[in-house]
Write a structure and sequence with these properties.
Blueprint: H1 2-82, H2 85-88, H3 94-105, E1 110-117, E2 122-127, E3 132-136, H4 143-148, E4 158-159, E5 163-164, E6 173-182, E7 197-206, H5 207-215, E8 225-229, E9 235-237, H6 248-255, H7 262-270, E10 278-287, E11 290-304, E12 312-320, H8 321-337, H9 342-395, E13 399-404, E14 409-412, H10 414-420, H11 424-427, H12 432-435, H13 438-454, E15 458-466, E16 469-481, E17 487-496, H14 498-545, H15 551-577, H16 589-600, H17 604-607, E18 609-614, H18 626-643, E19 648-656, E20 662-669, H19 699-709, E21 713-719, E22 729-737
Parallel strand pairs: 18-19
Antiparallel strand pairs: 1-2, 1-7, 2-3, 4-6, 5-6, 6-7, 8-9, 8-12, 10-11, 11-12, 13-14, 13-17, 15-16, 16-17, 19-20, 20-22, 21-22
Helix pairs in contact: 1-3, 1-5, 1-8, 1-9, 8-9, 14-15, 15-16, 16-18, 18-19
């Protein structure tokens, strides 16, 4: 019986041991599972936090690159505007040129363009409404004005400090970008620019608008958002608008003084303001509409404003860490309720984690796809902008090209390829010596070496030989710099002025010849004055000795009268040819006409011509010099006499136009008129229908230039003899602007 009882007891103990062992094993497994679960949850939190922050860093980098691209676009447009002849020479089209530039950079945050003259007293302004104006002020003491007048800042861009509550824009954060302007660009009106500093061109940038464009579409997770600070820690952008323009170090403490913001202040001071990028976390007192102390994840990236990274802004993307850890926390809680079924917990946990990672990965992939599309659109827009500038270069009528330090062509526009007579692929890579004569190539290499060694622009006019044919070029060589500021290539803009050079040479020759003839005529008139004085003296002496009323007395009176007439003509010629030392800003039209008529009226009898005058009284003074206008009147009157071969009538009239702002002088003749084939050429220099020796072809050309210079114009109406013999003749109309009352300056 003892044996029977011992067997079940032994079996019971064995089962008990197995149960205890199984229980202990189960407890160990449960504890191990709990520990592994806690360890896994913690590791998972770290992984997801790091992954989430990495994605936030990608968004921060993307935003910073967009801002840098926008700033580079603005700087490039500012540099191009400073090279514009309309700006450098302050032509009448300055407002149109500024508006064109403003329209291309307005979306980047530029709200105003200003041109300050070299004296610092006048500003030419165009704002984002398209309104142009000229204002007076004291701009010489501004930092950008002083910076622009330093020679070492030529071809550089000034970037000012961000200001708030400025006089012009009190509600905005604005920043000034400026560039000095030099008279270096060439056009028809300024073929030989002085190269002097003429002022400073500046863009006023709405910084918040610039940054908002890059940040407003960025969203991290469910409620995460971006913000930006400048190099002094001032908020440039924040979803909460009241923080924009505030000191980031002080604004948080002022809003939640009981919370320590030491961690975020350290991140801003030691990382963000020093231009570093990275990820971290900090304690905040709110997020959007939620007001409580919470832990946030943050990723930050710098915006490099200068090539040397001396000046930086910083972009941050932040989101509450609770959003990231929420899912992992639910897994962690679930493990406490299902500790007894370790396998199921592991299986379900694994499935959940895998599905979560898939969803998270899919969500991130979709977000990255959206950002990639946005980046692609931005790149497409940049490509369109580059295409626009490429089109401008290709459509230019100047030779535009780039060469390296060896003189090998890197690029060439359409005009240049047409000039050298070959497709662009056959010309790129060739050396200057392959296209020009050896002497011409070496001359241009000297200019290129000068630009590379000094970094300064070279503006020259010089002859070149291409294919044994000589041309004249006026060229502007500009250095192209790399990120370190070293010139690695040269941009050349050349204009073929061969025909203009020939015309200038011919005009100089003819002008010098006319000047010599004028001096000779003045000398002859002066020499004739002495014998006329002697003739008058002897005539007067003989009159005293001759009986009054006798035939001889009448003859002597006739001699005296004609001699006096000759003397008056000589004096009029000398007065007309005399140089006036002081330029007049206003003059009387009728008075100058009378002086010219007094010179020419003595030859009317020989020409069988009648001169009629119809001069309006009390005409206001006009803008111009007496000497210049007398020259114009003399040219038009003598042309009228020449047009009347067999006698006729020349009528001179003056009048005030219907609006009262111009005086019109009309020269009407009954001559043979101007033929149709000559009407488009009469104002061209050296064009004449007269025989050799009878005219130079400069009269109307010079007259047109004088009148145009004073803001006037010359027009004509003509009927040729072959068109209508009854109505034949020509009328020239000289229209000159009236000088406003009180602004006249009369010569002494």
């Amino acid at each position: 019986m003892n044996r029977k009882e011992s067997f079940p007891r032994e079996k019971y103990y064995n089962v008990r041991k197995a149960i205890i062992f199984s229980g202990i094993l189960m407890i160990v497994l449960l504890i191990s599972a709990l520990y592994l679960g806690l360890l896994s949850a913690r590791n998972m939190k770290e992984i997801i936090r790091e992954d989430f922050n990495t994605q936030q860093l990608i968004l921060a980098r993307y935003a910073s690159h967009r801002i840098e691209d926008s700033l580079e676009f603005i700087k490039r447009d500012l540099s191009l505007l400073s090279l514009s002849p309309s700006i450098q020479h302050l032509e009448v089209s300055w407002a149109n040129r500024m508006n064109t530039s403003l329209s291309s950079v307005k979306e980047e945050g530029v709200i105003e363009i200003r041109l300050i003259d070299k004296n610092g007293g006048t500003a030419y302004v165009v704002d984002n409404l398209g309104t142009s104006r000229i204002i007076k002020g004291h701009f010489r003491d501004t930092e950008y004005f002083k910076w622009a007048f330093l020679k070492e800042n030529k071809n550089r861009i000034y970037m000012g400090e961000i200001t708030r509550k400025s006089e012009q824009y009190p509600e905005k954060l604005v920043m000034i970008l400026a560039a000095p302007t030099y008279k270096e660009s060439i056009d028809e009106a300024y073929p030989m620019p002085s190269g002097r500093l003429e002022g400073v061109i500046l863009f006023t940038v709405d910084v918040t608008s610039l940054v908002r464009k890059a940040l407003q579409d960025i969203k991290s997770g469910k409620t995460g958002y971006p913000w930006a600070i400048d190099n002094k820690g001032i908020f440039l952008y924040h979803p909460e608008k009241e923080l924009i323009g505030e000191d980031a170090f002080k604004a948080r403490a002022a809003r939640k003084p009981k919370i320590s913001f030491e961690q975020i202040n350290i991140i801003q001071k030691e990382k963000m303001l020093k231009g570093e990028e990275g990820t971290s976390w900090y304690i905040s007192g709110w997020h959007g509409n939620i007001e409580k102390e919470m832990k946030k994840l943050i990723a930050y990236a710098p915006v490099h404003l200068t090539s040397g990274h001396d000046l930086n802004w910083s972009i941050a993307v932040a989101a509450p860490i609770s959003e990231v850890e929420g899912v992992i926390h639910s897994v962690y809680i679930r493990q406490f309720y299902i500790q007894g079924v370790i396998v199921l917990v592991i299986i379900f946990g694994s499935i959940y984690v895998i599905s979560f990672e898939k969803r998270w990965g899919t969500s991130l992939e979709e977000e990255v796809t959206k950002k990639t599309e946005a980046l692609k659109k931005s790149l497409d827009k940049l490509e369109k902008s580059e295409e626009k500038y490429r089109t401008l270069v290709e459509s230019a009528e100047d030779l535009i090209f780039t060469v390296d330090e060896k003189g090998e062509y890197l690029s060439m526009n359409r005009c240049a390829t047409q000039f050298f007579g070959g497709p662009v692929e056959n010309l790129i890579g060739k050396n200057l010596q392959d296209l020009f004569s050896e002497e011409s190539a070496e001359l241009q290499m000297g200019f290129i070496r000068q630009v590379i060694s000094t970094g300064m622009n070279v503006n020259v006019k010089y002859p070149v030989e291409v294919g044994k044919r000589e041309y004249w070029f006026t060229s502007n060589f500009v250095g192209i710099k790399n990120e370190s500021g070293k010139v690695f290539a040269v941009l050349g803009i050349s204009r073929d002025i061969t025909e203009r050079k020939k015309m200038e040479d011919e005009q100089m020759y003819n002008t010098e010849k006319l000047a010599s003839i004028g001096k000779l005529a003045a000398g002859v008139a002066h020499e004739l004055n002495n014998p006329m004085t002697i003739i008058l003296g002897f005539a007067d002496l003989l009159l005293e000795k001759t009986e009054h009323g006798s035939k001889n007395h009448e003859v002597l009176e006739t001699i005296e009268k004609q001699a006096l007439n000759c003397k008056r003509i000589i004096e009029s010629l000398l007065s007309f040819a005399r140089y006036h030392e002081k330029t007049e800003y206003s003059t009387d039209v009728n008075e100058n006409l009378e002086k010219v008529v007094s010179v020419v009226e003595n030859i009317l009898d020989t020409k069988k011509t009648t001169l009629e005058k119809n001069l309006a009284e009390n005409l206001p003074k006009v803008r111009g010099s007496s000497g210049h206008l007398q020259q114009v009147f003399m040219n038009l009157i003598t042309n009228a006499f020449a047009a009347i071969e067999g006698g006729g009538v020349v009528t001179i009239s003056t009048r005030l136009n219907s609006t009262g702002n111009r005086v019109e002088i009309l020269f009407k003749d009954t001559g043979h008129g101007i033929k149709k084939e000559y009407r488009d050429k009469i104002f061209e220099a050296f064009f004449t229908t007269k025989k050799i020796g009878e005219g130079t072809g400069l009269g109307l050309s010079v007259s047109h230039g004088i009148v145009t210079n004073y803001g006037g114009e010359i027009t004509f109406e003509t009927v040729a003899e072959e068109e209508d013999r009854e109505r034949k003749g020509t009328t020239f109309n000289v229209s000159l602007p009236v000088v406003p009352s009180g602004s006249e300056q009369i010569s002494v």
